[in-house]
Amino acid sequence: MVVAVNKIDKPEADPDRVKNELSQYGILPEEWGGESQFVHVSAKAGTGIDELLDAILLQAEVLELKAVRKGMASGAVIESFLDKGRGPVATVLVREGTLHKGDIVLCGFEYGRVSCDA
């Protein structure tokens, strides 16, 4: 499991309290001998996002998660932002299907085209 401890940019942030509270439910951080990765992030400041994405990819590799490659693609948007040169950019976790360059994607009421294969 990957736990994103958000709002770490706030002065009252207390990630140790979060670890203590979650440990009461059996969710223990790796440094305490558990199996959960705790990543400190600030969505507002954008800090820790790369570490969170790396943790998710590592967890997917450890669990040997594989997507069903047949059919239409579906998944979840992990991160999105507006790039001045490229326009809207999203990091997507594909759960099933395959995305190709030029495919149209829909997220809520917004849509766009895949501009690169990853």
Features:
118 residues; alpha+beta; 2 domains; two-stranded parallel ribbon; 19% helix
Largest beta sheet, briefly? 2 strands, parallel
First-to-last CA distance: 24 Å
Can you give the helix content as a percent range?
A: 10-25%
Radius of gyration: 17 Å
Helix and strand element order: EHEHEEEE
What form results from the Cα inertia axes? globular
**Unreliable sequence segments:** none
Q: Looking at this structure, what is the CATH superfamily of the largest domain?
A: P-loop containing nucleotide triphosphate hydrolases
The overall number of domains is: 2
Query: The CATH topology of the largest domain, please?
Result: Rossmann fold
CATH class of the largest domain: Alpha Beta
Pfam family, one: EF-G_D2
Domain Elongation factor G-like: 73-115
Protein name: Translation initiation factor IF2-alpha
GO molecular function: GTP binding; GTPase activity; translation initiation factor activity
Structure summarized in a few sentences:
This is Translation initiation factor IF2-alpha. It contains 2 helices and 6 strands, in the order E-H-E-H-E-E-E-E.
